[in-house]
Design a protein that fits this description.
Number of helices: 0
Oligomer: single chain
Structural class: little secondary structure
Order of helices and strands: EEEEEEE
Strand content: 5-15%
Largest sheet: 3 strands, parallel
Number of strands: 7
Low-confidence stretches: 1-5
Mean pLDDT: 91
Amino acid sequence: TSKRSQSILNYFKNCSNLERVKASVCWSSATSLAGTFYGCNSLKTLDMGDAWNTVNCTDFSDTFNSCIAIEELPGIVTNMATTLSSTYNKCSALKRIRCDYFNLENCKSLQYTFMTCSSLEQIPKLLNTNRVTNFYQTFTECSSIIKLQQETLDTSAATIVYKMFANCASLEEAPEMDFNSVTSNSPSIFNG
């Protein structure tokens, strides 16, 4: 297959009246889901079962960005992902992601990944984050999160952590993190 057919880039982007997607197709050949449901602000049901087979996908940037009405999403396979930038950004009604963990062994950026997920109470465990360099506003305004599901978060490669947990008003406990590689001035990690 050609590179073009392997990308589902912006497939439903800005389909603002779309309320339900039932897709029983094979997604395993997709290498990019960037912007797939971006701006689908009426989307309430994404019927793909509990797990979305995205085994070869490297780019999840903006996949669900601004899906403000959806409350539950299927899990995604992130083993090959290099970026999850803004994947769930502005999913303000999102309460549940149907997976236990994200394997991020190839990921470099978690910028804005869960930003403004104000109804999300539990984030899947973030495993193997030792290559992630960008945690810019990853959890900003996740105001319902009390603690992450992990005792440690590998931030040893992180150079950017600005406002990583800003305005996480309910946060009672943060995981242990290493900020020795941080190069940017980041006094606002826990601002608000």
